[in-house]
Design a protein that fits this description.
It is built from 15 helices and 16 strands. It has 505 residues and is an alpha+beta fold. It has a domain of 84 residues: Lipocalin (Beta Barrel). The longest helix has 17 residues.
Length: 505
């Protein structure tokens, strides 16, 4: 494993980018990338790192606009102070390195040992503990969870009368349960118990977790479901959740740096990255606390996430397993109930491009884990910025290019030719609600959206009114009124949600 020898200083990110683009170094990197395409992976770890660092690739590739970026450039663009990366090659951690700083004010450098909040990547790791108990016969994937829950029960209604909530549905987000995600709690706030969270009772800051559609039919992401799973694990074992996860998964897999403890114990806080908002400023209290540990509470490093992924890859190959057997891992990596999720991770790709993955977004932390079924390839990227999700995807795309992952990058899309006069009609402010607004501006041959919070979004025309964006899960259209004037923008997300914003006169 290769660790960072020198980490970036946030005040020198732009300077570092200028250095990367110096003629000599740029030529060397171009040569490395060309060699990788022609003959395979660069021979040395240093060459592989250099190639990845300067070959970040768009999450949506637009024909004629696929020039790669550097990590330093994109960190500055996304206002992300710190990034940590671990790359899996041949079922081993090939290298791990930190970039930037763990805290924008203190200037502490990110290292491969810096702790980040894994956010929703907590879920597939939690799933391993659940499946281990299924393997042992303590739990059953298809049994009504209310038969095993002791300290709280899923409220029954007309939907549960048709199909009970079971672990297969919870793990695959097809249980019909509500509550997508959790905002967390300030470090000085009162923390609710898990039953209080599930009932939406004070001091919980989210609504009750309930079944409002028939379980077993149709995907809908639910962190609320994972919180039911968390309580179930503690109920059937009689053990605190962080202790159970340590002894059942983290310890056996070798994730020695990781913990589900929330709040993070005082003795470990010096190892942790600070959460930063979309402009790169530290949040109050350094980070939020997540008593919804199974869904969002894991503190970890990219190297430890890589160890989790390698364990799953090897178990699937029938190699000696530390936690789950081959048959259970096969189930784990099979999409369930007609959705895109197995028993924990998201599943994508076909043939030798099949992969399991999960992203994560807590306040001030964004991350991504991807691992291929075959060949022992993958990567984990963790950031300490609200806008780090796109950066993590761009870094992973660069790793996929350099390491030759099959069919990982999406095909290039071609923007329609729309005259600038038409594009200029859409420029202006759009009202999202009582306080939020979205600004649309033109940038040469396409538009850019600037929300009040978060990174700006490039908008490319599919037609005179329809568009796609540089976010793969976001498309939309401009709506004209009867007089032919621009009335509103409609943005569609991959979760099936449509957001409408009216144009200001």
């Amino acid at each position: 494993m290769h660790s960072a020898r020198e980490n970036e200083n946030p005040m020198s990110i732009r300077a570092a980018f200028r250095q990367v683009l110096s003629v000599g170094l740029f030529a060397a990197v171009v040569s490395i990338v060309a060699a990788a395409r022609a003959t395979g992976l660069p021979a040395t770890i240093d060459e592989r790192i250099a190639a990845v660092e300067t070959h970040l690739t768009q999450t949506v590739r637009v024909k004629g606009q696929t020039t790669p970026w550097s990590i330093a450039e994109r960190m500055a663009q996304h206002h992300v102070p710190g990034v940590s990366v671990a790359v899996i090659h041949d079922y081993k951690i090939d290298w791990a390195k930190g970039y930037g700083v763990a805290d924008a004010e203190a200037g502490t450098p990110v290292t491969p040992d810096t702790l980040f909040q894994a956010a929703s990547i907590s879920k597939p790791v939690t799933a391993v503990a659940t499946l281990k108990l299924v393997d042992a016969g303590v739990l059953d994937l298809d049994r009504d969870v209310n038969k095993d829950l002791k300290s709280w029960k899923v409220p029954e209604n007309e939907f549960t009368a048709k199909h009970a909530v079971d672990l297969r549905g919870i793990l695959s987000h097809t249980a019909g349960l509500t509550i997508h995600g959790f905002p967390g709690y300030a470090t000085d706030a009162a923390l609710p118990t898990v039953p209080q969270i599930l009932d939406g009772a004070s001091p919980a800051n989210t609504k009750p977790v309930r079944v409002d559609k028939e379980p077993g039919h149709g995907f809908r992401y639910s962190g609320g479901g994972t919180t039911v799973e968390q309580l179930l694990l503690s109920d059937v074992t009689g053990r605190p959740f962080p202790e159970l996860m340590r002894d059942t998964v983290l310890g056996p897999v070798g994730m020695a740096a990781s913990t589900y403890e929330q709040p993070l114990p005082p003795g470990r806080r010096g190892q942790a990255a600070t959460a930063h908002d979309g402009s790169g400023k530290p949040i109050a209290g350094k980070w939020n606390v997540y008593p919804e540990m199974g869904a969002a509470g894991l503190w970890t490093t990219p190297s430890d996430l890589a160890r989790y992924a390698i364990e799953i890859q090897l178990a699937r190959q029938g190699k000696p397993q530390k936690v789950l057997g081959q048959k259970m891992v096969e189930q784990m990596l099979t999409p369930q109930n007609g959705g895109a999720v197995g028993l924990g991770p998201f599943i994508a790709g076909e043939g030798n491009a099949r992969r399991f993955s999960h992203g994560g977004q807590n306040r001030g932390f964004s991350c991504l884990l991807v691992a291929l079924f075959d060949g022992g390839q993958g990567a984990a990227v963790m950031t300490n910025g609200d806008a780090g999700g796109r950066l993590a995807a761009e870094i992973t795309n660069g790793i996929a290019v350099i390491y030759g992952w099959p069919d990982y990058l999406p095909p290039e899309r071609e923007a329609a030719q729309v005259d600038t006069a038409t594009l200029d009609r859409y420029v202006g402010q759009y009202v999202l609600g009582p306080v939020d607004a979205l600004t649309i501006a033109r940038r040469e041959d396409h538009l850019v959206a600037r929300p009040v919070r978060g990174p700006e979004i490039d908008i490319y025309p599919e037609s005179a009114t329809a568009f796609f964006t540089n976010d793969p899960g976001m498309t939309g259209r401009f709506v004209l009124d009867d007089a032919g004037q621009v009335a509103e923008i409609v943005v569609n997300t991959d979760g099936g949600r449509a957001v409408r914003a009216k144009k200001k006169p």
